[in-house]
């Protein structure tokens, strides 16, 4: 299993969750939700920090996508729901109803299932006998 890339993926998701929290702190300081207030809020330290964290998250995520299949990496992004909910409970004292907890557990189960699929994929690839691997030869005689 590509542990290094999964760790980087978790860092990217964590940075995104941190960015979400910064945006929430910044917006709460504005006191109003009008368009002018929101535009001014872009330049407040918390909102700016949130955008920076999102940017760093995106850069790391791009590095991960260069190494892992999108169909494997993208479901890990769902962990952001879990991280943001837990941070909201811890830092903002938000209540988490039981039904939401069940949903978070299902998300984590789905991500673990996707992670396990990588091991299953690798095992299946290892079982393919070498005699069955087709050799590809160039069709153009000028290509070597």
Task: Describe the structure in brief.
The protein is mainly α and 144 residues long. The protein has helices at 3-30, 35-41, 45-65, 70-73, 79-91, 98-127. The chain is 72% helix and 0% strand.
Defining traits:
single chain; mainly alpha; 144 residues; 72% helix
Layout of secondary structure:
Elements: H1 3-30, H2 35-41, H3 45-65, H4 70-73, H5 79-91, H6 98-127
Helix pairs in contact: 1-3, 1-5
Mean pLDDT over the residues: 86
Domains (count) = 1
Oligomer: single chain
SSE class? mainly alpha
Give the number of helices.
6
Strand content: under 5%
Radius of gyration: 22 Å
Helical content band = over 70%
Element-by-element helix/strand order: HHHHHH
Largest sheet: none
Beta strand count = 0
- Distance between the first and last residues' Cα: 34 Å
Low-confidence stretches: none
What this model shows, in words?
The longest helix is centred in the C-terminal third of the chain and has 30 residues, at 98-127. The chain is flat. It is mostly helical. It is built from six helices and no strands. Helix 1 runs antiparallel to helix 3 (45-65) and helix 1 crosses helix 5 (79-91). Helices cover 72% and strands 0% of the residues. It has helices spanning 3-30, 35-41, 45-65, 70-73, 79-91, 98-127. The chain has one domain (3-128).
